[in-house]
Amino acid sequence: MKEAAVSLLTNVINAIVSPSKEDFNDFFKILSFQQIDKGTKLIEKGTFVDRLHFISEGYIKYEYEDVSKKRVIHMAGNGVFASDFFSYYSSQQAITDVISITPCQLLRVDKIHLEKLYRENNTWANFGRKIAENALVNQIMERIKIQTLSPEERYTNLLVSNPELLKVVKLGDLAEMLGITQETLSRIRKRLSQA
């Protein structure tokens, strides 16, 4: 299982930078493998985040609590890094809960070790910068989609881009992430199934 996680991460890394075997050895030394159950809170709002998780298998959700209620604001799965990035990069308290919605296999890296690797190796410093840039671009694109696409278009995009997620997520969580009510989501799903 750990081998599959390392293999997936290796593919992700090679798509971004070109580390040498020695570089890879240095990086893999600071990783630890984790298996977690569905419903495990990886990160709790209000804590200080000092680690990143690479999801090799499974799905997580990000919950944000405002004055009225908790809302699912994002979901992620296989092949991505997960954390409360606000806390990780700003050294302030986490603003989200990060919770597994399926059993997950993860590779974890502690910030202190990763920052040391960034200082000592330009390949990994470039990798870290590119991961942060990609996260920013993804956030911008999500914001644009929420502002410009209809609820049905947002659902259809998710259906095409991540059909596996739709098999494991609760409809209420999905509706929250899409910024619609569960009733609206049900109407959209019914309309699309009849088309």
Output the CATH homologous superfamily of the domain at 2-113.
Answer: Jelly Rolls
Secondary structure class reads alpha+beta
Order of helices and strands: HHEEEEEEHEEHHHHHH
Instruction: Write the CATH fold name of the domain at 2-113.
Output: Jelly Rolls
Helical segment count: 9
CATH architecture of the domain at 2-113: Sandwich
Question: Whole-Å distance between the termini?
Answer: 41 Å
> Roughly what fraction of the amino acids lie in strands?
15-25%
Low-confidence stretches: none
What is the radius of gyration computed over CA atoms, rounded to a whole number of angstroms? 18 Å
The chain-level mean pLDDT equals 93
- C-alpha geometry: globular
Portion of residues in helices?
40-55%
- Total strand count, please? 8
The CATH class designation of the domain at 2-113 is: Mainly Beta
> What strand order characterises the main sheet?
1-8-3-6
Q: Characterize the largest beta sheet: strand count, sense, and whether it forms a barrel.
A: 4 strands, antiparallel
What does this structure look like?
The chain is α+β, with helices and mostly antiparallel strands and 195 residues long. It has a domain at 2-113: Jelly Rolls, CATH 2.60.120.10. The protein has helices at 2-14, 21-29, 85-90, 111-120, 122-148, 151-161, 163-168, 171-178, 182-194; strands at 31-36, 41-43, 51-57, 59-65, 70-77, 80-82, 97-100, 104-110. The strands form 2 sheets. It has a 4-stranded antiparallel β-sheet with strand order 1-8-3-6. The protein has a 4-stranded antiparallel β-sheet with strand order 2-7-4-5. A hairpin with a 4-residue loop joins β4 and β5. α4 packs across α5 (122-148) and α8 crosses α9. The longest helix has 27 residues, at 122-148.
